[in-house]
Amino acid sequence: MSSPRSTPLPLIGEYAVRIRTFSPNARRYLIGTFLMGIAHGAVWVHLNLYFQAIGLGEETIGRILSSQSFGTVLMALPAALLIDRHPARHVFGAAAVGYALAIAGFVLVPDARYLPFVAMLAGSAFTTHWAAAAPFFMRNSDSQERLYLFGFAHAIETTATIIAAIGVGWVAGVLGARLGGTETGLRVAFLVVAGLSLTAVWPFRAIEGPPEHGGRRLRDYLAARNWGLIGKLVLPSALVGLGAGLIIPFLNLYFRERFHQDPLQIGTYFAVSQAFTVLGFLLGPMVARRAGIIVTVVATELASIPFFLLLAFSKWLGPSVVAFWMRGALMNMNHPLQTNFAMEVVEADQQAVTNSLRMLGWNLSWMISTQVGGWVIERRGFTLPMLITIGLYAIAAVVTFLFWRDRRTLGRAT
Fold first, then answer.
1. Domains along the chain?
2. For 327-371, where are the E strands, in sequence order?
3. What is the DSSP letter of 51?
4. What is the value of pTM for the model shown?
5. CA-to-CA dists, residue 151 to 59, 70, 114, 315, 354, angstroms
6. How far apart are CA 289 and CA 18, in angstroms?
7. Residue 219: what pLDDT?
8. How far apart are CA 195 and CA 184, in angstroms?
9. Whole-number Å distance between alpha carbons of 356 and 255
10. Is 70 exposed, middle or buried (0-12, 13-18, 19+ CB in 10 A)?
11. Contact, 55 vs 48, CB < 8 A?
12. How does pLDDT run across 40-54, given as a tens digit for each residue?
């Protein structure tokens, strides 16, 4: 059989070859990620609609989402310590349990005074899951496999989001009609996906292997050899997070308020968007092997801007939905590529802390801008934060190219 490196196989065929090379540990992680991904997809697509159904305004919702990002910030560096000091099966399993408890908490503690703390737990748990993933991949794959493994992991999680987007919307609609409203239907659906997150513990428990550096302490992680290098990896992520936090958490409310769509319709739009995103995740490594990682990242960020402009100004549902799909596919295509690039350019003993600092930069920016975004949207609508986001995305693309133009061939097939 010819290798994928020398023969341009179709997308499905190339991934079929690559998946067979993934280690057993990587496959177990992917199964658990799929189960957690269904829960995460329900939160991503429908949580704001649930908050709105129980009477919360955009500013309050923004404060809750900001608390979720604060939980992410709190766990970004500790997650690096955990994956190096404890077996991966324990770290991923604890994250799955914590996330399940948080989702159940949204339903069982529907009080605006306490929801920020529940959101903080959700952010901490899911951050532990993703922050630990990159160093785990580096230890359980070779350089040829991991470009595809990063993309496939995101594709698996996004496929689960598609299922959640449609499934939760359908359950909310059916049960809401029978039990007395959308709020009741969403409550039941969230309890179901909390249970699915809990089942992720079983594949995670099957992961084998000890921690990589059991005796390292926090100061060992912070003794980075090249803070300038890490800073160049963190800054573009922080700029994108700053822009994304202004509007991305509120796109479901955008369709609800500007076009008066119901949860099932919104869930369908998000499901199709995630299908495009899955395609982007799978195509990303193939494009990067031809153009290089940095060129692919910069090109996709810039290409998303016209679609964001259409979202900002359109008063027609059809074009807005298409723009929403294309913008999401282009921006999300480069996330696994950026993570893989960061892991390749730093030393092995700095991979965990670098990934955590990138997540810290992105989520700290997101935490701040989500609070601002909710405030602005409640008073000025959706157009202004979208325009600010466009400017920040453009700056991030330019900064990325300027920082890494001398390594723009990294990832390109030779």
1. 24-208+218-407 (1.20.1250.20)
2. none
3. H
4. 0.71
5. 34, 26, 36, 34, 19
6. 14
7. 63
8. 17
9. 33
10. buried
11. no
12. 988 888 888 889 888
